[in-house]
Every structure is written in C-alpha cells, then in structure tokens.
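just leaving the lab so this will be short. what follows is a protein written twice so to speak, once as letters and once as structure tokens for the fold. can you read through it and tell me how you think this chain folds. thanks a lot i owe you, the record is right below.

___
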Amino acid sequence: MKSGGGAIDSGPTRVDHLIVGIGASAGGLDAFRAFFSQMPADSGMAFVLVQHLDPDYKSALAEIIGECTAMPVVQASDGTVAAPNTVAVIPQNAILKIEAGVLRVALPESPTARRSSVDTFLVSLADDQGENAVGIILSGYGSDGTIGIAAIKEGGGLTLSEAAFDHRAKFGMPQSATAGGFVDYVLQPEEMPARLLEHRDFKSREAIHGLNETAEAGRVNHLMTICAVLNSRLGRDFGQYKSSTLMRRVRRRMQVLHIEDPAEYIAQLRSLPNEPELLFREILIGVTRFFRDPAMFDALATKVLPDLIANGGAEEPIRVWVAGCATGEEAYSLAILFREALARAESPRKVTIFATDIDDRAVTVARAGLYSDIIEADTTVIRLEQNFCREGQRYRVAKHIREMCVFSTHDLVKDPPFSRLDMVTCRNLLIYFEAPLQQRVIATFHYGLKANGILWLGPSETIAASGRLFKAFDKRSKIFRRLDVAPEIPRPKPSSRMSPASPSQRTAEPDNIDAQATRMIAQYAPAYIVFDGQHEIQRFSGPVEKFMQPISGDASLNLFRMLHAQLRSPVRSLIRKALEQQRPAQEHVTFQVAGQPHTINLIAEPMAEPAGGQRCFLLAFQELTSAAPQADSAKPDQPVAAADPEHSELITAREKLQTITEELETANEELQSSNEEFQSVNEELHSTVEELETSKEELSSINEELQTVNAELNNRADSLVRSNSDLANLFDSTSIATLFLDNESHIRRFTPAITEIFNVREGDEGRLISDFSSRLAGSALTQDIVTVLRDLGSIEREAESEDGAATYLVRVKPYRDLNNVIDGVVITLIDISDRKKLERDRAHLAAIVASSEDAIISHDLEGTIRSWNAGAEKIYGYTASEMIGQPMSTLLDDVQIDEWPINLARLRQGEPITDIDISRVTKGDRVIYVSLNISPMRDAQGVIIGASAVARDIAMRKMAEERAEMLMEELDHRVKNILAVVSSVVTQTLKTGGTAEAVGAEIEGRIQAISRAHGLLNELGGVEGSLRGLVATELLPYQQRSNVTMSGEDVVLSSRANLSVALAIHELATNSAKYGALSTEEGRLNVTWRVVRVDGKSELEIMWLETGGPPVTPPTRRGFGTKLIELSLVRGLKAKVDREFLAAGVRCQISVPFTEEIGRVVSAAGSETPSR
C-alpha cells in the first residue's frame, strides 16, 4: 500500500460473474489447449484471450480453442458482451479494452508503437471489474502482462501465471509477472481451472454469509483484532488506515488460505509465525512506474524545478523527500528530471533525494536499481540511453542517477520526519489513510519543508483539510506550496483504536452544543446563552439583549461582564447549584428593564461533555407575567419591593449582596490582571519550550538522516567488502598472469601467476615494472604500455619466452575507474603453449589431409558430415560447401543405406571398419569403387564423438582386374574363335573341290591372314591407326572372295579407340563366319563408316550390313561376344550399339562420340580435319 494506484473503490458498473483475462504470445497455444481442456463449459465465467502478435499475423486461435471447449468461441468486436460461459478472442491488429462488462475494440494509434496488448486489456479489466477480475499469464516472450497483473492484484482480483515446467514453452511473460510479486498462484495451465472454480465458489459463499464489505456487523471487531496482532508482532500500526482497503487485503489472504470465517483467520494469524508478515506484505502492495502520470511530471519539470534550482546558492544542496517510494521508480524519475533541469540551467548544485518506504523488501529492490524491460513503455529512448545500462533483458540505473538517491526504511506514521527540505513528494499514499492521519502526515510535511517548499501529491489526493498550511500552486498537477505559518510539531500518537474507525465513528458527528441547544429550545423556547467553563459566551439565541448590560472597558464575551447587573448574583448561585447537582436548576428573579419590573425564570443546565472538548452550560431566560407597578418613591434601579416586610428584607439583602459582589468583581479584576501577567510569563516559557521542542525535533530529523546515510554507507561498505573478498579469491585462484599498473607504470597489484614471468614478489607494489626482468623475449611490452596510455586503445599480441619453451597471449588494455577515467593499464598474459602446439599439429595434419588424393571425411555419430577434403571433392565431385552438414547416405546406394545404421552402431561401440571395397555414388549418380577405412574419433576424455572415413579410389585397380579377367576370357574365346575360323576356312576350302595341294595352300594363306590381322590388332594397342586399315586387316581372311566390301572417309583412330573398334569388328566378323553371311559362298558383307553431326556434336558412324547368308535368329542369351562389344564400345568409348537380326542378315550400327580423344579425319589432300 505504497505508491499505489488510483482510487480505493471503483465506480464502474460491475457484472455479477468473474471475467477472466488470459494473456499469452505465439508460444501459448499449447497452454491455451491445456487450460480449456480442463475448464467446464458451465463454469459461469467469461473468458477473454489476448495475444500480442505481429499486426500482419492472422491468428487461428478462435478455431483452435473451439476444438478444445464446448463454450462458444468468438472473435471480439466492439460491443461484444463478456457473458458467462463464453470465450472471446482479440482480433488481429487491435487494442482491446472492457467497459461495464462490454468489450471495446480499437485500432492501435501507431503501427510502430510498442505493443502491450495484454497489459492494456488487463489494466482496463482491473479498473472495470475490481474483485471480479481474474488475470492469467501463459507462456510468451517478453514482459507484456506484468503491469496488468499488478493492476488486478491492486484492485483485489485473482492473479495466476504459468509454471515453467514445459521445456517447449516460452516463459518470459510468466517469469516477469511472478518476479514482480503480483501473482497469487503459479500453476500449470491444466491445474488453473480447478483453482478458478474454488475461487468462484469461495466468492459465492462469501456473499451468502455476509463476509463482503457491506457486512459491517463484526467486521470492525475483527479488523481491530487483526490490527492489534500486526502491531504487537511487527510493530506496525494500521489503526488509521482505511478499513475498506484493509478488509480487501485480509479477504485476499483468506482466499489464498481457503478460510471463510474471519475468526478462524485470526486464529491462524496468531498461530502461524509467518502469517503476520505475509499479511503485512499483502497490505503493502505497491503499483508504481517510471514517470507515472507524464503530464504531472512535465508540469513539475517546467513550473517547479527551474525556480527551485535558481533560488539557492551554488553550494546549497537541494533536498527532496520521496515518501512511500515503493521500489524506487518515482525517486529515480525525479532524479532524472533534476539532472535534466540542472543541465539546462548549467547549475552545479547537488541534489539529494531521500526515498523512504515502510517495506524493507521494496527498498532493497530500489537500492539495486535493476528493472525489467517493461520500463521501455514508460521511458523515452533518450532517457534510457542516458540514464540506464542494459543488462540482458533488464536495465540498471546508471551510477550518476543512483548516487543522487538515498534509500531507507521509514514509517511515516511514527518515525521522525526529515527537515530543511526543498520538496516533498507523497503520491498515491494518503488515499489509504483516514482523514485524521492524512492531516497529521500533511502537518509533518509542512514541518519538514523550508519556507515556500513544494509538496507534490497524487492525482486523487488533496489538502482540503489542511488549507491553512499549504496553498495550491498547480491544482491540476496537485502541486502545493508551503505557507509561512507556525509549524505544527508532529508528535506520533498511538492510535486510539487498533483498527479503522467504524462507519458510525467515521461519520461526522453533529455538534454537541447544537444538538442539546436544539433540544432545549424545543422544550422551553426561551432566549438562551451557551458559555463554557471559563464563563466565555459561545453562542446567543433569541432576544437576549434585554438581559444584557455590558461593563464598560475592553470588549469581552465573559458572561458576567455582559450580563445585567441585577442578574449576575442569581446566575452565579444558579450555576453553582446546577454544577453541584449535575442537573438543571432554576429560580424566579425580578429585575428592572427600562424602569419596569420583569420577572423571569432563570434556568441553568450543564451540557454533556463532548469528546475532546470542555464542559459547557446553557442559561435560559424564561419570561413570566410582569409584576404590578409600584409607588413612585421606588428607586428606579432596584427591584420593586413586595407588599410584605419579608420581601423588603429580601431586597435589602440583595442590595448588600450586590455591593459585596461588586467589591469581589473589583478584586477579581485585579487578580485577572495579575493572572494575565502570569499568563504572559507562561506564554514566554511555553515559547521557549516549543523552541526547545523544535530543536529536539530538528536534531531527531538530522539523526534520522544520519542513520539513513549511515545505513546506505554500511550497505556500500558491505558491498565493498564482498567485492574485495571476491577479487582476492579471484586473484588467488586464477591461473592467468595479470598485472595492474598506474599511469607511470608503477605496480599496483598482480596475481600470483605473474611471478612465473616477472621477477616480482609481495611488497613490490609501487615500484616501476621496468625495474624487473621477465622471461619474455624482446622488450616490446614497455612500448605497448606507452602506446596504450597514449592512444587509449588495446593491444593484443603473442610473445615467446626467452628459451622458446612457452608462448603467451599478451593483452594490454587501459584501466578505467568507475567514473570511466583512464588510470593506468591492465596486462594479462595467458599461457597458450599447449594451444600453439595443437595449432601446429593441426596445421600439419590439415596439410596432410589437404594434399591427400584420398577422400578424408569426418562425420558425427548421427552420420552428418562435418569435414570434407580436396581428395573427397575430386573423387565424389561434391564441394565441401555442398556436403558439410549433409548425411553420409548421400553417397550410398539403396542397399548400403539399409546397412548404414548397423555400421553406425558398430562405430558407437568403438569398433573400426577396415579395408573394405565398396561402391559409392558420385555427384553425377556415377557408381565408383573405393577402398574404405572408418575409425571412431574420441574427445579428450575418451568419449566417442564421431568417426573419420578414408576412401581411396580403386577404379584403376578395378579396371585392371576386369581387364585381366576379360583378357583371360578373350584368350579363351579367341582361341576358340581362331579354331572356328580355321575350321571354317578349311571347310570352305575343301568345298572348292581342288587338289590337295591347292586346298592346303589356300588354307595356309587364310590362316596366315588371320595371324597378320591379330598381329596388327596387338600393334594398334600403342599407336594411332587408320580405321580403313583396321577393318581391312580384320576382314582379310574373308576378302579373297568378292562378297566383302568396305568404304568410308580416311579416319585415324587413337590407340584406345583402335583396340576397342578392332575387338568389336573382330567379334562381328567371327560371328558372321560362324553363323552369318561369311559362313556361305552366297553371303555378302558391306562395312561403311562416316563422320556426321548430331545435335551439334560429331559422331563416327560405322555400319555393318550382312545379306544373303543363312537365316539368322536372335540369340537367347548374351554371349561373350556381346559382352566384349559392350565392354569395349559402350563402357570404353561411351558409344551406342544398335544390332538387328533381320531375315537377310545381321545389321549393326555403331555410333561413337568423335572427340579429339577418339580420333580425327584426314582430308583428301592429306590435311587433317579435327573432330569437333
């Protein structure tokens, strides 16, 4: 109940059901689902969901929540009623508020302004519904909702926030709200509905049993007891605080403890050790912000501070007291305003702000000066930059602002005030006090202020009852100026009651005098006079002038100086009689008025003694019938004599009594004069006593200030001791060699590790560093120190020891004190010998890996590639940027992908995979073969963290192996083919029917031709050769007949192409000799070739066409000849082979990409035409 917010009792129309405001951000969807999955559809509560989202983001929250609850879920629009058992969702890019239970939707003022949608709605909900408001903060980033939760707490509503149990959620908003101390329950979202239902039921039972504020009977007694307990346990007297506020805070504690009977709570308050403290904290809820009510701060800055600064000497400090400072925001705001005003006025005056509060925890927060980033909503960017330091998600008050403020705990009700103040601020605190306490506190401020001092109150506060002490300076901004009247020395008084006044006591009591006088008038209806115990007339009523005869001299309202001379003696007797009997006394008296006798009935009655006042009397003059006229000889100034002698004696006695009375009055006047002299002396003594009292109070105030300053110094001393202790432990434990030098290079401090580098010891502080030798090679350190002090920069370099055994990272930086003044240098030397060795080893290994022709790859235990060398890029075709971060499965075929998890499991167990030949897929989906070794990698602790794979391209080896295998098959096949050709030649030769000699000669010639062709084929393996010569050589055994023809351009083939084409022609010829056209006399063979352009590229086209031979049938399997053709042409030369088994014979077309590697065309004139 410190710098609190606003009026105590809210005026808006409130609904009779709970309205629950739930705030979250984009991360709160799961929390929303969990909450509504447990909330019954008939709870009787209304729910409003508010998210702070990007203005352009279209939320589907209404549809999502609609799937979790049977309640109607609608998007809020202007005029939507927050009805029971409904859910309303804030629309996109909107500001949502509530008025009288009706939602109000508006567009934001600025699209770039800071969005605090949750705060905006919850603050309006607190103002609108008070105790019927419930605020819930679910997961979300930032601090939106903290201010709104505080407002609901202050208004008596229930507050909840999400517990940080779900690792997937964001908890910036719940943590901020909880850290502010404004949250009643911290629960998981699914637990909140049960708590809300308990809260609803409690309020229902409370209304039934009359525990609300309208149930006056018994409430006063309970509050009296509660205040008495707090006073006895904590020494805090809340007896003169407003009962409505106290009762609301007590009821909140009862709700938390699930207690419905106040008597039961009082028992708990007495028995539980911590409950008085918890209730005390509940009562002291303070809601404050930086620059709260900006217009009032602007008025203070422009209308008050300039004059306050100007009206004083340069050496005279400005003293300000912030009473009820809460967590310090207002005190720091004032400090910022003063700093800005001093800068504008170019004034050197010092400002000291005494900030006090009864809550020691709030004062601790204020001293720390550390606030969450919600202050961005209340503070301009310039003020944040100039007066705060960012620390993560929080802001710390800058040193120059913090030093202007002195914080301490202080009880405004009973502790002595500060004195000689220029300004006092007490905003939103007096609204919690009863009127007598308000007046006493304002008198305290008047006493503490200098002449014309400034008093600044909150927007809902006034000084109407203390108008003689202050006058308004700015009514709108609640700024008042002290009037120069005698100060009322504030003396703390114990409360006459240990609880707030009951309504009957608080109501202004009718004036006792008026009440009883009115009753007397109604009974007797005479003229009357009211006078006090000193016979001073307080009031006249009716025609009393005939009974008055004032004595000449100084004007006076003394009854016996005003009363008719003939009535003074009877009145004295009558008053004495009434006072003795303590009841009305009356007497008939006759006296002369204008020469005529008047008989009246005098009535004197003591009046009831008023509270705090003095005894008064009422004297009534009741007129009776006038006496008969008397003889002329009667004296005009005497009462008329009666007819009988007794009456004459009575008159004589009265005359004597009158004479005695006059003598007594004369003596009384003399005594009165003496008494006045004594009173004058007494007043002088009283004045002296008051001066002594004033001096005493001033000394008490000064003592209080000294105690405050002393407490602040003690806190700083404790902080300094802790800092020194931390620094000493850091110095003793660190292995970093550190040296502190002043501006002249004298040693200030050093860590023990520095002694291993410099020859310094304890006690060398104050000596020049140049006096000591060091292990560092060279003397660059001295120059570094000079450079840093000159340029105010930093230097970082490496230095080796003289023996080269160690390497140090040397940093030389300026030494800055707390005022950011350069006061020397700090030198740190970090031993990086091990790191340098590791760097050299790493560079050596990196060079080996970089220069390796093998693919060296590392991956983690999940198979994700972490490194990729140049060898891997060469073998697989992928660059390092393409593969780092990709899975190893990119290089595997389908079969290996299935086996890869098994290999990873082996590696996790530390089992290496060695010397396996395996296929891999390159960037162009080409399959290659590698020899693979995979070894587990371990960290410094021996834990397996990944694996290193080394792959060597074995394509050449595979080709050599395949070629050897092929050559073996070729040898076998050729032998068989040669035998077949020989057999065919012999058979065909024998069919000629020649002589034996002729047949033998023909057979021998054909066999020699075959031998020459094979010799030529072998020779073509190392040189270029003509395609025509190659074809002619291969067909030489069959050219003795006229049925073989060939034609084509003069093409020269490379050795590789020669061999492949020769093998293919040989196979075609052999097959033809076995089964085709060359196997009969009637068969014909035509071989042609040419170079053509296809799709802009050159191709060598060779056509093999057989006709006239025996019928040809397609083979049922791929024989060796087919394999040989595919191996030599398709795989070797990337050629296309198209064979058709026609009825007339075999047709085979071979298309070879005719590049420079394949061959060239020789023109007719002998020049070469290169292939393209």
Remarks:
- The longest helix spans residues 645-733.
